[in-house]
Each structure stands twice: as structure tokens, then as C-alpha cells.
């Protein structure tokens, strides 16, 4: 039996992780789950999976959850960051699935690493903001980091039985999002509803908007740099609209190994939970002849400037990727609230990066204060 905690069990990755648990209920036991607002779903999950601990980030919702639970439920209910960290550190849990969205995932992930847990990393913002600091911490505490993000799982799998030192380049695939091939004139007027229509994946709102701006690919470039210890110049982003080749690696002998599959996050989630074992499941098989065509294009980094900004932030280093990420989190939330336009996401991110004086990351506090600076600066920019 493997014991797991799921941070963000009510989200897209969280619910698909629970699907994987249903598929392998004789091998996986859920010890702790967490959510923010969706207490109706947390109630159902508690009744179905009987975790020992459930954290509801939102304090009022935590009290409300207690009131709607059947009286025989023994699950301890906590709230706030203390609760999130308790779920991440839960003694019996060996694997922590980090499936909360945004920088809020940083502190609990650090807590889990310091307890030497295995991290099934979906929350890309942790590595984007923490970079080498997180990777060094994971080495220091012998906490394996197993990627869940489909591209990084594909790269990880392509590297199995190969020497990391012989990587020529990483080929990171991107669907291109709902606005692939569009120009700036078109993008001026796009609506939130259009941006939320991802062609291949059903995901949370934040990452879906990031896919539309190509910021998701930018965040994944940064994530790949730190996970696989390569230079930014060794990462080639290729637009592949079918999302069948999830990414790959070209080695020094010019042989490329890639991982393919239908777009189904349960596959990389299962892989991370059972690594290095591969288990049977009931998911759909890939038929290349049914798919017919796999196509590839270069990304347009002028129109989709967020991808260019991600490469720029990596070359700058230090707190710059954290600042880009924090700025993007604020901008996406403003866009979802219809307070800024689609193109303003990239424009504001660029402005913030130009205003930031990077610092070396010495501790988690450096990252959090860069986040604070970013939020303050965006607020004052918007007021003026
Ligand atoms: N979805 C996907 O296919 C993929 C996602 N990822 C990454 O995985 C992470 C999760 O994405 P996804 O599942 O799509 O996101 P969702 O928005 O679907 O889910 C987010 C989860 O985090 C919880 N949450 C939101 N805000 C807070 C907060 N402030 N404090 C504590 N918990 C919070 C939500 O709780 P509640 O629902 O109760 O409000 C929910 O459980 C992201 O970092 C994303 O980039 C990576 C690859 C693929
Ligand atoms: C499923 C997954 O891993 C997402 O990060 C996905 O990659 C988003 O698709 P884009 O390639 O459009 O960003
Ligand atoms: Mn991805």
C-alpha cells in the first residue's frame, strides 16, 4: 500500500489523481486532502476515501464543511496554511501530490521536501519560483521530485536508461492553445470565454489561460531548466497541435526519444505514483493510424510574448522567474475578472520584469518578498 496526500484534491489534477486511486484502490490509500472553496466536493471525497486529514484553506468554508459532514466521519478538519502544511507533512504519507494552483504551493512543497517525502510535482509554480533553491533542498533532504506535468513526465521517461550528460536538447511540445496562428490584431478583442476553450485538455482556469498566452509553455521551459539541469538554449519549444507527442529529448548522437499518448493526465499521474513500475489500467489506447497526422510548427514569440519573457527571465536568473510568475498570476486573475485585456497580460508582465532588480535566491523569504514587491508594483501601476 502507498500512502499519499493530495494538495488540491478538488481541482483538475486532484480529481484525476483520485481517479487513479479508484483504478488502483488496492495499492493506494489517501491520507490527506486539501481544497480551498469547493466544500461540497470535499465532503464527497471524505465520504468516499476516508482520509485522516482534510484542510480547507478558506477558514469560513472549513467551519461550513464541519457542519455538512455526517456525524460518524472521523476525518480531522483543518484550515489555512497550517492545515496545508500539515497535509504536506502528514507522517504516514510517502508521496505528496502537489496539485494546488499558483505560488501558494511553494510553502507546503518545501515543508514536504524537508520531511523527505516523494513529491509528485504538478504545481509548476514551485520550481518556476524556487528553481535551484528547491532542487538543492530536495537533494539535501533526499526527497525525490517526480514530474506530473505531461511534458516533464515525457522528458523524464525519455531520459530513463540514458545519461543526462548526453542531452543535446529538450524538445518541449506545445499545443499552441486556442489562438494558435492568430495575430495581435485578432488577440486585441478576444474574450475570457474564448481563451478558456483549450483545444485538447480540460484543466483549471489559470493554466488554461496560460496555455492561451503560451505563458504555460514559458513556465514549463523554466520548470524543465531546473528539473533537468539544462541551459535555456538547450530547450526547443515546438508547437504540436495534436498533443500526442508530449515531449522528448535529443541525445548527443542525434537520436531523439519521445513519449507519446492520448492527452490524458491520469497517465503521467499514475506514472509518478508508481514510479518506476508501470501498471495496467483501463484507459484508452493510442491509435496513430486513427489520428492520421502529427504536425509541427515554430512558436510565434513576438505575438505570444509571454514565452519570450520566460526565456528572458531564465537568462536573467535570480528572482526574475519568480517575479514573472507572480506578475502573471495577478494578470491572469485580472483578465479572468475582465479588468484587463488578453494582450495586457503580456504587456504588464514585460513592464514588471523591466522594473525588477533581480536578487539571488537565498531562502524561501527572498521568493516571497519578490512576490510581495510584484503585487505592490502592479497595484500601483494599475492605480496610475
Ligand atoms: N490541469 C492539468 O491538466 C495540469 C495542471 N498542472 C498544474 O497543476 C496545478 C493545478 O492545476 P489544476 O488542477 O488545473 O488547477 P485547478 O484550478 O483545477 O485546481 C486547483 C486546486 O487548488 C485549490 N486552490 C486554489 N487556490 C488555492 C489557495 N489559495 N489555497 C489553497 N488551495 C487552493 C483548489 O481548491 P478549490 O477547488 O476547493 O477552490 C483546487 O483544489 C497548477 O500548478 C497547474 O499548472 C500541470 C499540468 C497539467
Ligand atoms: C496537460 C498539461 O501538461 C498542460 O500543461 C498542457 O501542456 C497544456 O497545453 P499547452 O501545450 O497548450 O500549454
Ligand atoms: Mn504541461
TrEMBL record:
Binding annotation for Mn(2+): 149, 151, 220
Domain 1-deoxy-D-xylulose 5-phosphate reductoisomerase N-terminal per the UniProt entry, residue ranges: 4-131
Domain 1-deoxy-D-xylulose 5-phosphate reductoisomerase C-terminal: 145-228
One GO term of the biological process aspect: isopentenyl diphosphate biosynthetic process, methylerythritol 4-phosphate pathway involved in terpenoid biosynthetic process
Pathway where this protein functions: Isoprenoid biosynthesis; isopentenyl diphosphate biosynthesis via DXP pathway; isopentenyl diphosphate from 1-deoxy-D-xylulose 5-phosphate: step 1/6
EC number: 1.1.1.267
GO molecular function, one term: 1-deoxy-D-xylulose-5-phosphate reductoisomerase activity
UniProt KW keywords: Isomerase, Isoprene biosynthesis, Magnesium, Manganese, Metal-binding, NADP, Oxidoreductase
Binding-site positions, 1-deoxy-D-xylulose 5-phosphate: 124, 150-151, 175, 198, 211, 216-217, 220
Swiss-Prot/TrEMBL catalytic activity: 2-C-methyl-D-erythritol 4-phosphate + NADP(+) = 1-deoxy-D-xylulose 5-phosphate + NADPH + H(+)
UniProt cofactor(s): Mg(2+); Mn(2+)
Domain DXP reductoisomerase C-terminal: 260-376
Binding site for NADPH: 10-13, 38, 123, 125, 204
General function of this protein: Catalyzes the NADPH-dependent rearrangement and reduction of 1-deoxy-D-xylulose-5-phosphate (DXP) to 2-C-methyl-D-erythritol 4-phosphate (MEP).
Family under the similarity heading: Belongs to the DXR family.
Protein name (record): 1-deoxy-D-xylulose 5-phosphate reductoisomerase
Organism: Sedimentibacter saalensis
Amino acid at each position: 500500500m502507498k500512502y499519499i496526500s493530495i494538495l488540491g484534491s478538488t481541482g483538475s489534477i486532484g480529481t484525476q489523481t483520485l481517479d487513479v486511486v479508484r483504478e488502483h484502490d488496492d495499492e493506494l490509500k489517501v491520507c490527506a486532502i486539501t481544497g480551498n472553496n469547493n466544500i461540497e466536493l470535499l465532503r464527497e471525497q471524505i465520504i468516499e476515501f476516508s482520509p485522516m486529514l482534510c484542510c480547507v484553506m478558506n477558514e469560513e468554508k472549513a467551519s461550513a464543511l464541519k457542519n455538512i459532514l455526517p456525524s460518524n466521519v472521523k476525518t480531522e478538519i483543518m484550515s489555512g496554511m497550517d492545515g496545508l502544511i500539515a497535509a504536506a507533512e502528514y507522517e504516514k504519507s510517502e508521496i505528496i501530490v502537489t496539485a494546488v494552483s499558483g505560488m501558494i504551493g511553494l510553502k507546503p512543497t518545501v515543508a514536504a521536501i524537508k520531511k523527505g517525502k516523494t513529491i509528485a510535482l504538478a504545481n509548476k509554480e514551485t520550481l518556476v519560483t524556487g528553481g535551484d533553491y528547491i532542487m538543492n533542498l530536495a537533494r539535501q533532504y533526499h526527497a525525490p521530485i517526480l514530474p506530473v506535468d505531461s511534458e516533464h513526465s515525457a522528458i523524464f521517461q525519455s531520459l530513463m536508461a540514458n545519461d543526462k550528460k548526453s542531452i543535446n536538447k529538450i524538445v518541449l511540445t506545445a499545443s499552441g492553445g486556442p489562438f494558435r496562428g492568430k495575430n495581435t490584431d485578432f488577440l486585441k478583442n478576444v474574450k475570457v470565454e474564448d481563451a478558456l476553450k483549450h483545444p485538447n485538455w480540460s484543466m483549471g482556469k489559470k493554466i488554461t489561460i496560460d496555455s492561451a498566452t503560451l505563458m504555460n509553455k514559458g513556465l514549463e521551459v523554466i520548470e524543465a531548466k531546473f528539473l533537468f539541469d539544462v541551459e535555456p538554449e538547450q530547450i526547443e519549444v515546438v508547437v504540436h497541435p495534436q498533443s500526442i507527442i508530449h515531449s522528448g529529448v535529443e541525445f548527443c548522437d542525434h537520436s531523439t526519444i519521445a513519449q507519446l499518448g492520448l492527452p490524458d493526465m491520469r497517465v503521467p499521474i499514475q506514472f509518478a505514483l508508481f514510479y518506476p513500475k508501470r501498471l495496467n489500467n483501463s484507459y484508452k489506447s493510442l491509435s496513430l493510424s486513427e489520428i492520421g497526422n502529427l504536425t509541427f510548427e515554430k512558436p510565434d514569440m513576438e505575438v505570444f510574448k509571454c514565452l519570450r519573457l520566460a526565456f528572458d527571465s531564465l537568462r536573467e536568473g535570480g528572482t526574475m522567474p519568480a517575479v514573472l510568475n507572480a506578475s502573471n498570476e495577478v494578470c491572469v486573475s485580472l483578465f479572468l475578472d475582465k479588468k484587463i485585456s488578453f494582450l495586457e497580460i503580456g504587456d504588464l508582465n514585460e513592464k514588471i520584469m523591466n522594473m525588477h532588480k533581480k536578487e539571488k535566491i537565498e531562502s524561501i523569504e527572498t521568493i516571497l518578498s519578490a512576490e510581495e514587491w510584484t503585487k505592490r508594483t502592479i497595484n500601483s501601476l494599475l492605480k496610475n
